Structure formats: structure tokens, C-alpha cells
Amino acid sequence: MEHAEFNTGLLKFLNASPTPWHAVATMKSQLDAAGFEELDEKDDWSVDQNRSYYVIRNGSSIVAFRTGARDASASGIRMVGAHTDSPCLKVKPNPELRRKGFFQLGVEVYGGVLMNPWFDRDLSLAGRVTFLDGHNKVSDTLVDFRKPVAFIPSLAIHLDREANSSRTVNAQTDLPPVLMQVPDDDATSFNELLGQQIASESGTKVHKILGYELSFYDAQEAAVVGLRDNFIASARLDNLLSCYIGLQALLNTSGDEAALLVCNDHEEVGSMSSEGAQGPFLTAVLDRWCGAGKARAIARSMMISADNAHGVHPNYMDKHDENHGPVLNKGPVIKVNHNQRYATNSRSAAVYRHISDELGLPHQTFVVRSDMGCGSTIGPVTAANLGVTTLDIGVPQFGMHSIRELIGTEDGFTMFRVLAEFMQREQVL
To answer: Would residue 228 count as lying in a domain?
Structure first.
């Protein structure tokens, strides 16, 4: 895969994946096209050597793997992990608000949202809807309004003279988006609007909406930006970028060695769910694949937890340790925290550095300032659950958890090349 092809595919992937369910559906379509076989957790499995499989849980988490030519207990598994979710605004179960003729929806903040950038953006709406169809059957479907359907207008500075110095955001009262104007006697329910949208998208007749998990998202598409096209700007770069990198690495391996990609939901809220990294999903897949040889396989395996890193911001350079300020387009970032907020150790970091150096590719290192708290990833959770040697790494970015984030155009492709090589190494530990 060439650099330009990689970035073109990345933009398409980002635009097609406004929610975790859409991201998994997009990955599924690429895996299907590459000849991967879907496994259902409800069925018996027959997992053979030199085959490729994937498993989906809840529609929002996925494990895809190649079994390789040798038994995994003898060869180990080259694993890459990422997460499908991003901070956003989710629609409440009883969301309708009618104020002065404006139809609004109540929202709940999901994850550590940087809230101010959500104002004055064109917003669309997407997610999963569970409904009763015309045959009295409970079904799920994905929905995506695609066009801008909502807006959260800022309060004019004339009405808040301190806006540039002390304005705060109240998540309950300040964030309900405006969708339309309605007459005073309007009784339209949000469920009715959802049913109409489903019928419009798929032709499916909805008898009754039973539930939904819907998120507002930035309707502006991902784009290459900068005077010299140095950057990619998009929503959900944290962490769909790593999902895409991991997927392309798995698809572009030789298949001779056992390799696995896991993309979990709910990382942004602690990973504690049936499909999150603290849940049993990955362990269950490995149990059924490796059987009695699982412990030996894990002892020979390595996990690379891929999640974006904080690039040093030219306007806020004092927020970084002076020797650990990653620069965009200067290579992926090995993330180190000796308090185990990241799972990197000297051995796992050495594996990545060695492969990267062999390929002549750059890499960087991040350590948070000693007087600041450190974020975390699925890395420590997965390492603790499996007992697997783990590395935390990520592409440097600006604006993490904003509605629109920024990365360099070089770093994603650089990490893809290293991970593709990692996934086909005969021995990694």
C-alpha cells in the first residue's frame, strides 16, 4: 500500500464511521472483501490453521485474526488493540424539548468531551436503533442522517461580556441542540422522526421504536488541510485512526504468523462493559481459538495498544516535559508511564524501536510532565487481563477529545508500515 492510497482510505473510513457501530460495519465490509470468515459467538467454532476470521460483539467491538501456519501456542500472537468509541453527545431516552417554538433534544455527555468546540458546528445524528418490525420481531438497524440536522448556537458576546474570560459550559442546560422550529400545537415525537428516517434509509417499516444509542457528530467531512497539505483534520481521529491503521496492517500481512486486531468499545468511559477491554470479549475469543495452549501462546505474544498521543502544541509548549514533546509528522509516539497508566516496558518498547529502525522510520517518546496527571488506554487493562507483554503507542495529534482533531499526514502511514511488519515477524519476543 502506498502513502497516498493509505490516506485516501483513511478519509473514507472516517467519513463512513460516525459511531462505533458504523466503524465496525465498515471494518466488517473490508474483512469480508479480503476473505475473512465471520464467527458467531452463539455457534460452535472450527478454527483452522492458515485461515482468517473475525468476531463481532454488540455490533460495536470486533476481533479479527489470522491463525497463521503454526499453532499459536508455539508461535505466539502478534496483537494490535484500539478502540472504536470517541467522546460525543448522546441523545437521552426521553429527549424532546420544546422552547419558544424550537424543537431540541436533551443530550448526555459521553466521555471526556472538550465541550466548547461543539458550539456553532453543523451537526448530524447517527447510531443504532432497536425496533419492532411489522412481523412483531425485535430488530436492530443502523441509522445515519448524514446531512446537518442540528446546531448548538453560542450565546452572543453582547449578552455575556465575560464570555472570552470566564464562560463555562453547563452540560445540562447549554448543550441541547436545536433541530427545527415547530408550531405550538406540534406533538411530533423523536421516535416518529426516527421511524421516518429508517424507512427513508432502508425501506424498513418500523412498528415501534424500542430503544436507541444515538450520537450527534460533526457533519464536516475529514480533509487534508494546511498550506502544504501537512495535516488531516477530522472528527474521531481518537481513536478511529488506530482502528484503521491496525486493520490495514492485518489485511496487508503475509498471513504466515498468527496475528490479531481487537477494537473495543467504551474505552472513553473506562472500558468496563461486556464488549470493553475490561470485559471478557478478547479472552473468550482466545480461549476458543487457542484452547489448552492459551497460556503458552500468551507467553510468546505481544500486544501493541494503539491510541493517539498528545503532540506538543506550539502555543502551549509548557504543557509538555521539555525532553518529551512529540512533533506531528516526526513519527509515532511510544508512551511511557511508570505508574502503569501506560503498559509500555523496556522490552516492548525495544521491539517497536528495533522494527522501526530496521525500516528506517522515525519514532518518538512521550512522558507526561511530573506535575500533571496522565491519561490511559486499553493497554494496561489488556495487559492485566491477559498477562501479555504490551506496548502503548500512538500517532501525535492536536485537539484530543475536540469535535475536530488534527494529525500529520505522515505519521499514520509510518505506524502502519511498522505494525504490518510486526504482524508478520516470525518472532517478536
So the answer is: no
